[in-house]
Every structure is written in C-alpha cells, then in structure tokens.
Amino acid sequence: MTSLITTPFTAESTAAEVVDGVDLAGRRVIVTGGASGIGIETARALAGAGAEVTLAVRNIRAGERTAEDIIATTGNKQVLVAPLDLADQASVASFAAAWGGPLHILVNNAGLMASPEMRTPEGWEMQFATNHLGHFALATGLHRALAAAVGARVVSVSSSAHLRSPVVFSDIHFRQRAYEPWAAYGQSKTANVLFAVEATRRWAGDGITANALMPGGIRTNLQRYVTDAELDRIWKTPEQGAATSVLVATSPLLEGVGGRYFEDCNEAGPNQPGTRRGVAAYALDPEAAARLWQVSVQTLA
Ligand SMILES: NC(=O)c1ccc[n+]([C@@H]2O[C@H](COP(=O)([O-])OP(=O)(O)OC[C@H]3O[C@@H](n4cnc5c(N)ncnc54)[C@H](OP(=O)(O)O)[C@@H]3O)[C@@H](O)[C@H]2O)c1
C-alpha cells in the first residue's frame, strides 16, 4: 500500500491559494463546463497562473461572458471559448479535431446531476453519457495532444456521490432496472474515478497522468434538479470548490502521480461505511477500470 499524498491545503483553501507560486506560462488548458460554477473558478485560477485556458462550453454566450470576466480579473488575455456538447458525440469529435498542438491540462469538470430520466439519441442514459462517455471520448480524442505536452495531467471531477453506486455493468443505461436519478449520478461519478485509474495505466508511458476528485459541496447550477432537503452538506464557496481541481491539475506534489482520488485538497483514504468521505474500493478497482474502458470504446464505436 502506497502512502496517501498530503498537502498543506485544506477544505478552506481556495483555488488561488493552491496555485500560488506555480507558473503556468506556456501551458495550455481545457476546462469543460468552464462557464458555470466551479468551472469558472478553476479556469480563473489557472489563467491567473499564466496558462492559456479554453472554456469548452455548450453555451457560447455564457462562455464569452465568463472569458471577459476572467480576462478582466486576471489580466491574462489568453482565455478562449470553444463549443462542446458532451452529450453529442459529433460535437465532441469536432472539438477534438479542431484542437491543434499540445494540451498540458484537461479538466473534465462539466456535469449533470440527478436529472429526470433523459436519453441521448443513441439511447444512452444522459448522466452517464454526459459525465462519463462525453469526457471519455474527449480525452481519448485529445490523447495525442496530451502526449505531445510531456507530463500532461487529466483532472476527472468526480463526487462523493460515487459512494451511491458502482458502475452496474449488467445494466449501465437503466434498460432493465427502474431509473433512479441518484443511482445514475453515482454510477457516472464512479466512472469518472475508474477513468482516472485506467487512463493512468494506459497513458503513464506517454507522460500522462489522471486523477479524480471530490470538489466538496458548492451551491451552483448543478442543484437545479434537487431540493435542499435532499442535500445535507457544508457549503464551500466556488473558489474553495475549485481548489482540489486546481491542486490535482498543478501541484508539484502530484508529479507523476495518477489513478488516485482527492478531496479537500488531499488524497482521500478508503470510505468508512456510514460516512460520506473517502473513496469506495469499487471506484479504484483496476479490473473494473479496464472493463469500463473497453465498454466505453465499444459503446462509442
Ligand atoms: N457543486 C457541488 O456541490 C458538486 C459536488 C460534487 C461534485 N461536483 C462536480 O463538479 C462539477 C462541476 O459542477 P458545478 O457544481 O460547477 O455545476 P454547474 O454550475 O451546473 O456546472 C456544470 C457545467 O457542466 C456543463 N454541462 C452540463 N451538461 C453538459 C453537456 N452536455 N455538454 C457540455 N457541458 C455540459 C454545464 O453547462 P450549462 O451551463 O450549459 O448547463 C455547466 O457549465 C460536476 O462534474 C459535478 O458533478 C459538484
């Protein structure tokens, strides 16, 4: 058992504090869902450290407004906007095809939570399609750009909601079982962790590592489908919520580290039953990770 990575940062740390002293000049970054919630503050902190940041968003107007705001607050003019709908495979493919040159940091941040039952035109359950399959297609489509960066990092924004469900390989898309919004969200967030495990196993030789994280509880548009009563949590500010993503994306303490799960700016230990902290063994299981990769390739083929 390797020891857990610890940092000087905590649940209260902000994205700006975490990246303080890190120079990202010359680094190129993509943040999916970068025009809302913690994506905005993730993008702002990375731009503030000097990176070129592309906001990959489905609402271009919101993206442009966010880019203007980030440019104004950081003074970094290299904040770009590009269209990306993760639930639309043609959109993901054209985004990846349009990308030229190296990609140093890919933050797979966009997400949909506890939505009513919705399906893509292919019939895929929408949370799995958006949160996992879309990001899987994006990362694999950008693999060459990541490899070209030498030392690239992929950040997989998961959630403690992964504790609600493993990936149910026998019925990922809720065709036999009754649809349950939280089970679907939990399954997709477990997939985000498993992706980091298998991407690191496959791509470490290309200098690419991937880690997953729980940002904390942050009031954002994410809760559009849920009531306060369904949520029992301590709220962080968006700046605090972005801190663990930014840590995973940039911290020198994570050099060469991959396939792990972080929360509150530190690597998380195993979940203790009855708690909402830590990582489920099923989410770090290398066999499930390899299986999910294969299933994802087959699904997208
Ligand atoms: N907030 C929390 O308490 C919390 C807790 C645990 C984990 N997380 C995770 O943190 C990440 C960010 O969440 P947030 O709280 O910042 O939520 P948010 O404010 O709702 O932002 C999510 C972003 O994802 C985008 N998105 C949704 N579906 C998309 C699609 N098909 N294609 C492209 N973009 C899409 C949204 O775009 P639109 O604006 O166009 O809808 C939005 O920009 C998510 O992965 C979430 O699961 C959040």
How would you describe this structure to a colleague?
- This protein has 301 residues and is of the alpha/beta class.
- It is built from ten helices and ten strands.
- It is 38% helix and 13% strand.
- Helix 7 links the parallel strand 5 and strand 6 (209-214).
- The mean pLDDT is 96.
- NADP nicotinamide-adenine-dinucleotide phosphate binds next to helix 2 and strand 7.
- NADP nicotinamide-adenine-dinucleotide phosphate binds at residues 33, 35-39, 58-59, 84-87, 109-113, 130, 157, 159, 214-215, 217-218, 220-222.
Summarize the structure.
With 301 residues, the protein is an alpha/beta fold. It has 10 helices and 10 strands. α7 links the parallel β5 and β6.
Q: How are the SSEs ordered, and which strands pair?
A:
Layout: H1 15-19, E1 28-32, H2 37-48, E2 52-57, H3 60-74, E3 79-83, H4 89-98, E4 105-108, H5 126-141, H6 143-149, E5 153-157, H7 181-203, E6 209-214, E7 217-218, E8 235-236, H8 238-241, H9 243-250, E9 261-263, E10 266-267, H10 286-300
Parallel strand pairs: 1-2, 1-4, 2-3, 4-5, 5-6, 6-9, 7-8
Antiparallel strand pairs: 9-10
Helix pairs in contact: 2-3, 4-5, 5-7, 7-10
The structure holds NADP nicotinamide-adenine-dinucleotide phosphate.
NADP nicotinamide-adenine-dinucleotide phosphate binds at residues 33, 35-39, 58-59, 84-87, 109-113, 130, 157, 159, 214-215, 217-218, 220-222.
